[in-house]
Task: structure prediction
Amino acid sequence: MFGIKADPNNFDLEVVVLGSHLIDDYGLLYFLLSLQGEIVKKYSQSNPKTYEERIDLILKMCVEAATEAVQFNCRILGVDISTGGRVNPHEGVLLHSTKLIQEWNFIDLRTPISDALHLPVWVDNDGNCAALAEKKFGQGKGVENFVTVITDTGIGGGIIHHNELVHGSTFCAAELGHIMVSLDGPECLCGSRGCIEAYASGMALQREAKKLHDEDMLLVEGMPVNNEEPVSSVHLIQAAKLGNSKADNTLTTAGVALAVGIVNILHTVNLSLVILSGVLATHYENTVKHVVSQRALTSAQGANVVTSELEEPALLGAASMVLDYTARRIY
Amino acid sequence: MFGIKADPNNFDLEVVVLGSHLIDDYGLLYFLLSLQGEIVKKYSQSNPKTYEERIDLILKMCVEAATEAVQFNCRILGVDISTGGRVNPHEGVLLHSTKLIQEWNFIDLRTPISDALHLPVWVDNDGNCAALAEKKFGQGKGVENFVTVITDTGIGGGIIHHNELVHGSTFCAAELGHIMVSLDGPECLCGSRGCIEAYASGMALQREAKKLHDEDMLLVEGMPVNNEEPVSSVHLIQAAKLGNSKADNTLTTAGVALAVGIVNILHTVNLSLVILSGVLATHYENTVKHVVSQRALTSAQGANVVTSELEEPALLGAASMVLDYTARRIY
Result:
């Protein structure tokens, strides 16, 4: 079910990696990966609300995957957990999470999983994992300095400098969602204001969509109406496309805010590539390109802006760490 | 005149370094440094407006210093030029300067100076040099990750990551003055808006002081008046201290803008120390500390904020590069 049926004489295909990804409140995923970075099997469950249930489910899923892999004559090299929040990757400990994941602070993830599976276990922040995935399998291949900026429910990312992840002095580098582009601006979950997450994340767009909806200004002619469905960023984008100028203005401001935040990153660490990732990435790509060309210093304008081509970059990056650490090979 | 009189039997004191610093339009400095980082002699001239005159003067000053050093039985180890603008330190070439220095683009500084003096020559950006100085002689000693932010005429700085300078992919990392903290905000010399340089630099404060002056709202009772003197940031600060609330508000906004920019740096590369430097540093220190405690993520709030204790950090850093490269010793 989760392994790849391998030829015992072909060692390149016999190796399977387990990556696990905690994405916000949406779900808990894990998957098996071939050495070539092909996702062989992906499996998801909704993310439990409590620590106990969550850690139990992670363990159960890991054991299941390992069992399946053995049945399919495959070898699990190790486990990597990609999670939101601040992680000490040396110790495999989640220091503290964003407010998006409940009961998820000061948690040793390495010990219980390693004890249960007798496998090496790594843990890193999801944005960092996504950057590793781009480096190994995506558009960051061969690029020495780049950033990936992920716009989903929140905004995160990871920075590669001299081919290595930047973790920072207390493991909270690349908290890109909390780059501020306004001295006041909208309130952010973090307690500050004007963060790009408060302008351009899925949550922020949903907040704006609800505001317009409450004023009866969201729906426009031609929009399919489903009263059961909660108002979300999808409706805002749809309304803008159908000519709702208020929705369009909101989205433009969101895109400009994200882009100005990205220019700030470029002016701080001067990268040659920006990889936009997450469900809103394609939506923001053109605005980011335009704003970089308008507001970055000439010397920083050379940075390429692209959209990620990877499916599940955080997950893929988690698995790539296992490959890199255990196999120590160049693929 | 510029050397240190050395005991030929004491090799530690016999070594002298020449550092040269182009500070904006104000002046061209050079100095001699003992191995212990003590400034033995500092000499300055006003910075000529044209390339020809400037390069001639640099050469003349270098030759003078070298001659003096020999007369005093000292040895010049090398020359380092610290300059505003973007520098390729590997090739000793100034790629392009800020608008503050005229006729200062695509200039090979290494060749003419090296040819004239038969000495190794290094070149780097002044903000980067200042960071090196803090690392070697200042509060960055023994600190793995820190930033120095310099508020003078403009705003610049340098970032140390894993004990090394961050130069970036096109040598324009740490363009800290052009971190934007507003989607609109005041116009900046760089062509964008809302840059911290446009809020909190000496130029920005002067612009605001002039505005108030033109409206007859700058001077308050008790302020010494000198009609000959051009209106500057000094007057704004003085007026604020004497109770001018408009001047005080302007300065508070400037400080908050600078601080929000600094929080953005912390959220990007997560440093453990912020060293404020430049003539306005002490003025901004408290505001920066306060804003970091209010608006940085809990995990980034541990960053220490201090004011530089170094005299001429850019110059000192330039000289420290010479020491590091030629002597390869730990001091």
User: Anything to note?
Assistant: The longest strand of chain A covers residues 15-23.
